[in-house]
Structure formats: C-alpha cells, structure tokens
Amino acid sequence: MKDPSRFTKVSIVSFTIVTALYTVLAFLGAKLFGPEVNPQITLSMPPHLLVTKIALWATVLTPMTKYALEIAPFAIQLEHNLPDSMSSKVKMIIRGCVGSFLLLLILALALSVPYFEYVLSLTGSLVSIAICVIFPCAFHAKICWGQISKPLIILNLTLVAFGSLLGVLGTISSSKLLVQSLRRRAHHSA
C-alpha cells in the first residue's frame, strides 16, 4: 500500500462493498428461487455436474484453511523452540510436518464423526476463542506486566476469564449437540 495511513478507509470501503454485494446476491437468490432451495446451496445443485463437485470440495476445504491459519502460530513457535544447531531447512520441514499432522488429525476427526458442523463448532469454539481473546490478552498482560496500568491488567485478566468461560460454555454446548445427534442417529438406525 503506497499510503498506509489510508488503510482504515480502504478497509471500511472494501468491507462495505463486499457486504452490499453479498446482501444483493442473497436477495436476488431468494427472489429467483424462493422456498424450493435447500438450506445448503450445494444440496440444490445438480449432482452430476462437475461444477457441483467443485463447489462441494470448496465447501469442505474452506474450513480447513481456517485451521491451517490457526495452527500456523503453534508451528512457528515450535520452530523457534528447536535447537539453534538445526539448519533453517530442517526447522522448516519439522514445522511443516507438525502443521500438516495437526491439520490431518483435525480432518480425521471431522471425517470420522458424521455431523461435521458439530465437530467444527466443537473444535472452533475453544480454539477460536483462545486464539482471538484468551492468548492475546494473556500474552499482553504477561509481556507488559510492569509497563501497563492496573486497570489495563484487570481488563486483560477479566477478558481472559470471560474468554475462558465462553470457550468452555461453547465446548459444552457443542458437545451436547453432538451427543444428541449421535443418539438420534443410533435411535433411528435401531
């Protein structure tokens, strides 16, 4: 960006345009197709077309990019904790293997449980709240403990406690939904 001071304005304009486009697209889709459309758009597409298969795989792969982005800081920190005697190439390979292993572990979990949305909410509730709220506040308080005011420390610790509570409640809620769905499935198959 040539002029970094315009970043905020560019971000606001970009998000406004994208939101407006999505809103118009949603209304046009609802007007064109009405109530006959399934809740998931991929279920309304003709199953034999290549475009449908591409859309289905894009739907499956999109959440994985979220996990790859969330796992990257963990893998980078692991790379920094490796001995200095290791070459940077070996460190990079280890980081890639750890990140790939974690991603494959999450994929295996998602494929082994039949209710993918509950798995995403189960793993996402705690991981997302940890990465977005708990870790930044905890690290800020830890790193800047002697330099920040007491009210800011209290705010950071309150946000850590509140984020932890939300993460636990979200995980419990997602777990209950997953268990209920599995019970319903077992009840219907019996």
List keywords for this structure.
0% strand, 5 helices, mainly alpha, single chain, extended, 3 domains, 190 residues
Model description:
- By secondary structure, this protein is mainly α.
- It has three domains: 1-37; 46-112, no CATH class; 114-190.
- It has five helices and no strands.
- The longest helix is centred in the last third of the chain and has 40 residues, at 150-189.
- The protein starts with 6 loop residues before the first helix and ends with a helix.
- The model has no long low-confidence stretch (mean pLDDT 81).
Topology at a glance:
Blueprint: H1 7-33, H2 50-81, H3 88-112, H4 116-143, H5 150-189
Helix pairs in contact: 2-3, 4-5
Short description:
The chain is an all-alpha fold and 190 residues long. The protein is built from five helices and no strands.
